[in-house]
Amino acid sequence: MEPAAAVRAFLLCPTPESWFAVAARQIDTLLLDHAHCEKKAASTALTLLFRYPDRADLVATLPALAREELLHFEQVSGQMARRGIAHRHLSAARYAAGLHAAVRSADSQRLTDVLIIGAIIEARSCERFAGMVAVLESQGEAELARFYASLLRSEARHFEDYLALARREADGCIENRVAELLAVEQSLVLAPDAQFRFHSGVPEAD
Predict the structure, then answer these.
(1) Is this model's pTM higher than 0.85 or not?
(2) pLDDT over 90 (residue 1)
């Protein structure tokens, strides 16, 4: 199965077309927030390594994932530089915080939830990259379209890595919890959002 098809089958809903319509008009904000997301993704992987140094599966998987996220940050930074977009602070979307608010507090369950959420975020990123390829091609942004297409396979792999880690952490018993967290994610994606970000919901205005 192609990467984009695999994540579409996993997620409960597609990104609304209204999000892509706004993204097409706010490429600078999209790239800036994308850069922030790649830094955060690398940071998340490293934080898990520090917090759970005894988990052999994490130690075996997450260093390469973190390196790849930092490489993507460098690549996004290159796309920004070509457009004259400077790095600056940007307020975060409510998406990741909304997902992490659902994490269970018990130590035995927390890591499983965090890993599932990692898989969900990577899946949504892959789905939006795939949608942006068509949007950018239609606007004559061939170079940027090729860049987003190049990210699809690695993002899908990160999704699969996090999901596999969650299954091993919970001895495979995660399907009900995945469904619960996917329902939270769906509500965040389909709800109105006052600001446009890479992982924002339905933009109210731009």
Answers:
(1) yes
(2) no
